[in-house]
Specification:
193 residues; Rossmann fold; 7 helices; 11 strands; 21% strand
C-alpha cells in the first residue's frame, strides 16, 4: 500500500481489509468506531495498510467472510461431512461476493466521504456457526457428523459486525442473510435444492 500510495499520489485508494481486525471475543456488536487491535500478525499488517490508505485520503472496506457460488467453506464442510465443532462455537459474519463487489462500486461512486472513511461490508445477520451448518444439513438432507470436542479454526473471534454505517449512505446487501443467499444464488449454481 505504501508503494501504491507513493506511485499514484493523486489516485483514490480503496482497500479491502477484513473484519478480522476486530479482536472482540464476547459476542458484542462492533462498528467502525470499535477498537481494532488484532492479535495476529496478519491482522496487524492489515491495520498498517489501512492506516496508509486513510492517511492518503482513501477508503477502507472491512470485509467479512466472503461466500458465493463455488466459495463456501461451511457448505463444503456439510457436503464433506466434516464433524461439527462443539467447543467454542462462535458467531460468523459473512457477506456474499456480489455484495462485496456492489459495495466497492457504490463507494467508488460516492463523492466526498467524511472521516473516518472505514466501512464494514457484511450482511445483516451474524449467526452462530453451528446454526448455519445445521440449516445446510437439513436443506441438503446430509446428516452432520457427530460433534467433536475440539476447538475450531479461528475460534478466538466471536463478534457481531454492523453494516449500519454503509447502509446509512444508501447501500444495502443484495443478500441480507445466508438463507437468502444460499436459496437464491448458491444452491441454483450447484444444482442443489
Amino acid at each position: 500500500m505504501a508503494n501504491l500510495a507513493a506511485s499514484f499520489p493523486r489516485a483514490r485508494l480503496i482497500f479491502t481489509s477484513s473484519t478480522s481486525v476486530y479482536a472482540q471475543q464476547d459476542g458484542s456488536w462492533v462498528n467502525e468506531e470499535s477498537r481494532a487491535e488484532p492479535p495476529t500478525e496478519r491482522g496487524k499488517i492489515l491495520r498498517e495498510a489501512e492506516d496508509i490508505v486513510l492517511d492518503h485520503g482513501g477508503l477502507v472496506l472491512r470485509v467479512a467472510g466472503i461466500y458465493g457460488p463455488g466459495r463456501s467453506f461451511l457448505l463444503r464442510s456439510v457436503i464433506n461431512r466434516a464433524p461439527l465443532v462443539s467447543v467454542n462455537d462462535r458467531l460468523v459474519n459473512q457477506v456474499h461476493r456480489d455484495d462485496v463487489a456492489a459495495a466497492i462500486f457504490f463507494l467508488a461512486q460516492q463523492g466526498t466521504v467524511s472521516s473516518p472513511r472505514i466501512f464494514n461490508v457484511v450482511d445483516d445477520l451474524p449467526v452462530v456457526r453451528s446454526e448455519i451448518l445445521t440449516w445446510l444439513s437439513t436443506e441438503l438432507g446430509i446428516p452432520l457428523s457427530p460433534p467433536e470436542g475440539i476447538e475450531g479454526k479461528r475460534s478466538e473471534s466471536n463478534k457481531r459486525v454492523s453494516n449500519a454505517k454503509l447502509r446509512a449512505l444508501g447501500w444495502a446487501p443484495i443478500y441480507s442473510n445466508y438463507i437468502d443467499a444460499f436459496v437464491r444464488s448458491i444452491f441454483p449454481q450447484h444444482g442443489l435444492p
